[in-house]
Hints:
By secondary structure, the protein is mainly alpha-helical. It has helices at about 1-15, 35-45, 50-60, 60-70, 75-85; strands at about 20, 20-25.
Amino acid sequence: MPVLTCNLLYCSLGLLAWKGDRPRTRQFPPMSVRDFRAAMNLMQRDTSMEAFVMAAMTKATGADAQRLKDAFPNVYAELYARMHSSGGRLPTDVADKPEADT
């Protein structure tokens, strides 16, 4: 299932690259082997799509950040609330299971 999650995120972000009925001309830098290995490591940890999107939102700037915000408004609202709360906790949170160190 992690591959499906990663592919969904890739497809979601890929679809954002279309403007009207023609592809955008923006060129993205090539992915390095280091980036690829980091992505594979995240997939092996069964990271949720929301976590991927939140991470992308924290790294994105300018038009990319706005596209992510427009595509995932609920995820952006939660990320904003957590970034502006003590320890990232919200009053609606339930106790999480402690994560095992890997």
